[in-house]
Amino acid sequence: ALGGFMHQFFGWRGSFCLMSVIAVSLFSFLLLKVPETLSLRHKGRVSFKSFVSNYGLIARNPLFFAYVSFFALAIVGEWCFLTMSPFYFEDVLHVPSHYFGLFVGGVALLYCVALGLLSKITARWGDDVPLKAAPFCAIAGTGLFFVAYFFAPMNPYLITVAVSIFMMGAAFGWFISVTKSLDLFPNNKGVASSVRGLSVMGSMALGGWIGRLIPSDSLAPVGLCLLTCTLLMTIISVYLHRRTVQENPLSDGMRNAA
């Protein structure tokens, strides 16, 4: 949201200057104030064979990539919209940049609200609920996005609400991606986390690349991207749910009885 005002008063370079100042400040604070958490250091030689075998162990686990892809697909849709939307809002809807920043801030706010509710949701209904809620939010958000495309393409509020609901699904997917994927490798969480992080960054790049290629004068291409990501998320959700039932048939039956 602040970036829109920076762009309004200082040009497009203003946002990058502000981000640079914030990044240097945070790095300096972490370097000077945050203590080392690694109490025991391994003094032996680093084995390249062991390094490769750890990544090979993760690469052979389809369940890990299902959990990671679940969130990565939502990120592709998000970044496709974020890359294309400034041009659509400013050139087609004639929304000033500082107001556009507020719209994007609203999307981020609802994403954070969903993240804040996750702990309460899982504590009351279990970890399986975010797995079901994520594709539901993605379907609802994508459906509302197409409603905006067909009936209100000039309504920035409806477009923002649609993407916000889609991003609630991304928040639920983030929980699944982090907790479930890393729990598969209790002794190699560092390696698993690095692979998950690389997949997220790759998804951001892919979504931005798609958003750059599509025309910025219509909502249809973004809607098709969101629809594709939603369908794939739904397929993965069904696969993960079936795996959960196969591995814990008793707990699933008890949950259904309740």
Describe this structure in words.
By secondary structure, the protein is an all-alpha fold. It is 84% helix and 0% strand. It has helices at 2-10, 12-33, 48-59, 62-92, 97-125, 128-151, 156-183, 189-213, 220-247, 249-257. Helix 1 crosses helix 2 (12-33), helix 1 (2-10) runs antiparallel to helix 5 and helix 4 packs antiparallel against helix 7 (156-183). The longest helix has 31 residues, at 62-92. The radius of gyration is 21 Å and the shape is globular. It starts with a helix and ends with a helix. Residues 250-258 have low confidence and may be disordered.
Helix content: over 70%
Largest sheet: none
End-to-end distance = 44 Å
Estimate what percentage of residues fall within beta strands: under 5%
The ordered string of helix (H) and strand (E) elements is: HHHHHHHHHH
Class from helix and strand fractions: mainly alpha
Mean pLDDT: 83
Low-confidence stretches: 250-258
| Number of alpha- plus pi-helical segments | 10
- Work out the radius of gyration: 21 Å
- How many β-strand stretches? 0
- Coarse morphology: globular
